[in-house]
Design a protein that fits this description.
- The chain is of the alpha/beta class.
- It is 52% helix and 10% strand.
- The chain has ten helices and seven strands.
- The protein has helices spanning 3-36, 50-107, 110-114, 128-135, 163-167, 171-185, 215-225, 237-247, 269-279, 309-324, and strands spanning 144-145, 148-149, 154-159, 191-196, 254-260, 290-296, 329-331.
- The strands form two sheets. A five-stranded parallel β-sheet has the order 4-3-5-6-7, with helices on one face.
- Helix 10 links the parallel strand 6 (290-296) and strand 7 (329-331).
- The longest helix has 58 residues, at 50-107.
- The termini are far apart.
């Protein structure tokens, strides 16, 4: 055999062996893959019979039905509980009204029950200058308006401007009459101021200062009051506190007149009294230099009884406040 033929045979022999080797290797790989992914037999115990599924569905339907029944019963109980809560709330309001009337009646002395609204005259020594002023003017013999002494050099009106005061027929006119009468009885003072129960001043030009007492200024006060109605929360606390805190002075005789009809729930009467005690301090003789008077209007009594608790609160507050601060509380029983 020639060299050329031998070279061709060798090349053919090597190529065949390569092909044979690759095919054999592929078969081995296929066998390995097939063996590693052989199917796993399913455990018969894991198969849920069709009958068991049906039973579970029936149990589920039963539970859902019982849930609806329980929800219905729960809603009925909640409605009953709501009705009971409303009844308890009404009973508590009724009880509060009764307690308010009882407390108010207990604070009335035998002398007060003889004539509703009659006052005992509070006593305060007249200063030498007030004696001089009163000597030159014609005044009532007892120097009082409705039992309230006229012995101060400065006066402040604190007026409840809420809807119950302003809109009740006849009430606002009565309030104007009370202020007009009070100004008439005071022959001459060194200063006047008018605020509402929130502490808002009627005349911003005289904010935090005294209004000079002149006939034209008094007329202007009454005229402005006819249509003056700033916002009010039906509580005299803010106005009284601001008046005392702003105008208190140890060298001045000051009288504050609070005109209102109620004190809404929410505020603490004791906190108010403590605040006024702190800022309206006593002098060396134990007298408060700012005298506080109160006048109550019966507007709330024209409405439903459930609103009267605020009247009793106002009465209790003003009685205690005026008593502690050398003043008198007047409770009006009508608009005439």
């Amino acid at each position: 055999m020639s060299k050329k033929n031998r070279r061709q045979t060798d090349s053919f022999t090597v190529s065949f062996l390569d092909v044979a080797s690759c095919g054999f290797g592929a078969m081995i790989i296929l066998l390995m893959i097939t063996k590693s992914s052989a199917p796993v037999p399913i455990d018969p115990s894991e198969v849920v019979p069709e009958a068991t599924v049906s039973e579970l569905q029936e149990e589920l339907f039963t539970i859902r039905g019982e849930t609806r029944i329980l929800n219905s019963e729960l809603n009925a109980k909640q409605e009953q509980l709501s009705a009971i809560d409303q009844l308890i709330a009404r009973l508590r309001r009724d009880l509060s009204d009764v307690e308010g009337r009882f407390n108010a009646s207990n604070q009335l002395s035998e002398e007060d029950t003889d004539e509703v609204g009659r006052l005992t005259i509070a006593r305060q020594t007249l200063t030498e200058e007030m004696q001089r002023l009163l000597a030159n003017n014609t005044t009532p013999e007892n120097n009082a308006i409705g039992g309230v002494p006229v012995d101060s050099e400065y006066i402040i009106f604190i007026i409840d401007t809420s809807g119950s005061m302003y809109n009740t027929p006849g009430n606002w006119d009565k309030m104007l009459e009370v202020i007009d009468n009070t100004l008439d009885v005071y022959p001459e003072v060194k200063g006047i101021q008018v605020m509402n129960d929130m502490g808002d001043f009627m005349f911003n030009s005289y904010r935090n200062q005294w209004i000079p007492d002149t006939p034209s200024r008094r007329n202007q006060i009454i005229s402005t009051l006819r249509t003056w109605q700033p916002y009010s929360n039906s509580s005299p606390v803010e106005g009284v506190t601001k008046a005392v805190d702003t105008f208190y002075s140890p060298d001045k005789k000051i009288s504050i007149y609070v005109l209102g009809d109620d004190f809404q729930p929410g505020g603490s009467i004791q906190n108010v009294l403590r605040t006024i005690d702190r800022i309206n301090v006593e002098d060396a003789n134990g007298n408060r230099l700012v005298r506080i008077h109160g006048i109550g209007f019966p507007t709330i009594f024209t409405g439903p009884p459930r609103f009267r608790q605020s009247v009793y609160r106002y009465t209790n507050l003003m009685r205690e406040l005026t008593q502690r601060n050398g003043g008198t509380f007047v409770g009006l029983n009508g608009f005439q």
